[in-house]
Amino acid sequence: MKQQQIRNFAIIAHVDHGKSTLADRLLNLTGTVSSRDMREQFLDSLDLERERGITIKLKSVRMTYQGYTLNLIDTPGHVDFSYEVSRSLAACEGAILVVDATQGIQAQTLAHVQKAQELGLTIIPVLNKIDLPTAYAEETKADLVSTFGFLDSDILAISAKTGAGVQELLTEIIKKIPAPTGLANEPLQALVFDSYYDEHQGVIAAIKVTAGQLSQTKMLAKHSGEAFDPIQIGVNSPKPTTVENLSTGEVGFVATGLKDLSAVRAGETLTTRDNPATQALPGYKEAKPVVFMSVYPNSGDDFLNLKKALEKLRLTDAALSFTPESSSALGFGYRVGFLGLLHSEIIGERLERDFGIALIYSLPSVAYEVTKTNGETEVINSPIDFPDPSILTEVREPWTMLSIIVPNQYLGPSLDLVKEHRGIIGEIKYFSASKVLVAAEMPLKELIIGFFDELKSVSSGFASLDYELGDYRAADVVKLNILVHNEVVPALSELIIRDQAEAEGRKILGRLKENLPRQQFAVSLQAAIGGHIIAREDLQTYRKDVLAKMSGGDQRRKDKLTDLQKRGKKKMRLIGKISIPADAYRKILAANS
Ligand code: GTP
């Protein structure tokens, strides 16, 4: 294949702006998928993705059009997968920027454009959904010009739904996006922009050849050091099809036969063992989970099933991490690390739906860095592991950089909300007559306890948000314990900022009170930091009214009965241990997410 005839590009867009619909149209118009075989959102093949309308896995598809090979590289649309987005963009020379003309520029539009620009991609700006009467194309066009410096004449107007303007877009792709560079006579360098697990072929790497030629030779993954002999080399057009080799600039896949997904991760560089490239490609990063939750099966019998299910999921998801954990109240479970909240929801849904395991989740937490008095540092991602404060000199928490785009009239409440969540407001930029871009910094913990939902609600649904992980900063973090009848319930413990501990404690106690079954004796519910009680509630007795049946009767008899009842209660209090039904946990914890 002639390198000059190749175009590698991605479609970048804010959620729901029409990326998948446009991909479908391109597959259609190039004859890659016939109209007869076309089903909606062809590239989103996983059931779950289809249902949620989001793209989780990256895929590439090869199209042929007017003698050119067009490789469309699909990118996930959500911030949890921003590393995968950056790797797939790194495999492209160009990007189609899709902006919904009824919505205008949104936070992820901005984030994607920034990434594409940093990687030096040629961007083709496209206004989508112009068939809709609510489209305000001219205003959105003006915003694109003023925000990103595009030329008015370079912006295309299309409807991915009806196909209007899509033919012109194909012509622009060929005309504007440069052919891949890279030297064909150098040793092989192939960028892995995605990898996934196949039961028959092991780990399959989606790749772009950036130098040399990829063929059936002994291969090596530069970062992991893993060696393998390819089982299959191929391209998706759109069905996987075997090819002899892939030359410089081409996009395709290599089936490695390896069993462990972490051996060939996104960002990895493949080369040959006989004539290896000296350099690995830049940009490789380890997947680092940032959000943690404990996950317990609703029924103890399901523990082994949970274990098997997590192991199976990890085969296809290198970013998922988990370690066993046990709790006297909830039995055996796992502490699971995720890339973000959406990632946790996807995994949770798969566990419950695909594997049929009912689960109880703990409150979400982040990873804290602690420095001890002996100078050691440690990463703590569970309240159970939080060291005694007396041996700590500092605790640091992860921060994020936020971009919020919000219509003018909701700016005030949005800024207030950022501040309420310990955020620091940075630059505020008015980039169109009606919208404002706010740059802010905020602790990740605040973001995962519902900030986005609150932002949506104070902006009547109009605000959009994107974030990137930043640095770790010192924080006054304490371990909040919840005691039921004077016993700590570890599953309800939480790492939290000292200033927020009391309010959070009261909230949990309130929920406990609502959801715990009453006992025949009063039960104290307490929130504590160390030995210091900061909030208290009492669960009233479920009082068998021993006097109810006695109408009238003499007072001495009544007193005697009440006395007996009191003594019985005392006895029960001594031996009584409260058991918290799994369902109550579910309600207490679910209300927090
Ligand atoms: P994510 O995968 O969630 O990021 O979404 P997406 O950007 O792939 O958007 P998708 O293609 O799923 O489109 C979102 C919705 O907009 C769907 O209901 C589409 O049918 C609709 N849509 C996309 N393009 C057009 C268009 O040109 N006109 C109209 N009227 N609707 C469109």
Q: What is the count of DSSP helices, taking H or I runs of 4+ residues? A: 13
Which sheet architecture does the biggest sheet show? 8 strands, antiparallel
Molecular shape? globular
Radius of gyration in whole Å, from Cα? 29 Å
Strand order of the largest sheet: 10-9-14-7-8-13-11-12
What structural class do helix, strand and pairing data support? alpha+beta
Instruction: Please bin the fraction of helical residues.
Output: 25-40%
- Uncertain regions spanning at least 5 consecutive residues: 46-58, 570-576
Q: Give the names of the bound compounds.
A: guanosine-5'-triphosphate
Report the average pLDDT across residues.
86
SSE topology:
Elements: E1 6-13, H1 19-29, H2 47-52, E2 60-65, E3 68-73, H3 82-90, E4 94-100, H4 107-118, E5 122-128, H5 137-148, E6 156-157, H6 166-176, E7 189-198, E8 202-211, E9 219-221, E10 227-228, E11 232-236, E12 240-242, E13 251-255, E14 269-272, E15 291-297, H7 303-316, E16 321-327, E17 331-338, H8 341-353, E18 359-361, E19 365-366, E20 368-372, E21 377-380, E22 392-407, H9 411-420, E23 424-430, E24 435-443, H10 444-458, E25 464-474, E26 477-484, E27 487-488, E28 494-497, H11 498-515, E29 523-529, E30 532-539, H12 555-575, H13 582-590
Describe the overall structure:
This protein starts with 5 loop residues before the first strand and ends with a helix. It is globular. 27% of the residues lie in helices and 31% in strands. Residues 46-58 and 570-576 have low confidence and may be disordered. It is built from 13 helices and 30 strands. It has 593 residues and is an alpha+beta fold. The strands form five sheets. The protein has an eight-stranded antiparallel β-sheet. Bound molecules: guanosine-5'-triphosphate. Residues 13, 15-21, 53-55, 77, 128-129, 131-132, 159-161 line the site of guanosine-5'-triphosphate.
